[in-house]
Amino acid sequence: MITVHNFSRGVRGLRVVWQCEEMGLAYRAVGYEFPVPDAYRAKYPPGSVPFLDDEGGVGIGESVAQMLYLAQRYGPTPLLPAAPAAMARALQLTVASEASLGGLMNPLMGAKFAAPQGEKANWTNDFCEARVAGMLDYVESLLDGDYFVGEALTLADIAISTSLGMWEGALGKAIPPRLAAHRERMQQRPAYQRAAVAFSAP
Fold it and tell me: Average pLDDT of 183-197?
């Protein structure tokens, strides 16, 4: 069975179990508080979450890699369209959810929650905030109708909407209006609501 290890209320693991729910895949959710226990670090030395175990000796970190793995191993699935242009858009936005959004939010969250009071504001923070804000404007421009790719849910919708949870929930930043409406639609999906219970995600 698929096992997803994640922080309680962690949105990166949420996106993985949400995908499992959308695909009808059986999974087990294991939640941790920060910091992760030594037994988890023995399994995955970087100590970051989520981490996915699967049958056949599979162990994989990085939430976007996990999403692509599930789509490939247990697909085909409409979440990863087969048509080249649609596949390209879905892959671009799924990877961008971490490469251009989540990855830049990590130092912002580190500064907010871990930096000494006098070091919370710095050039790196301003740079990251500006880059994320610019990327959100670009992502919003790609939203055509209810979804990012065509007229159905894809990995892009799952990945982007959960990244918005970090921007708004952890960092307290405003989400552009059309992206906020998209996120609200995504949170109304039954599969999202079932997944949110797994890690008590916001």
Answer: 96
Predicted local distance difference test score (pLDDT) of residue 120: 82
Kindly report, residue by residue over 85-108, the tens digit of the pLDDT: 999 999 999 999 999 999 999 999
Is the same domain home to 126 and 178? yes
Burial of 167 (0-12, 13-18, 19+ CB in 10 A): buried
Check whether residue 107 and residue 46 sit in a common domain.
Answer: no
Q: Is the dihedral of CA 171, 186, 200, 59 positive or negative?
A: negative
Q: Write the CATH number for 141.
A: 1.20.1050.10
Could you tell me the strand order of the sheet in which 27-32 lies? Answer: 27-32, 2-7, 51-54, 58-61
Domains: count for the chain: 2
Closest residue by Cα to residue 158 from 86, 83, 98: 98
One domain for residues 118 and 182: yes
Structure tokens at 83: 């048509």
Amino acid at 122: N
Domain that holds residue 13: 2-77+192-199
At 30 the three-state DSSP class reads strand
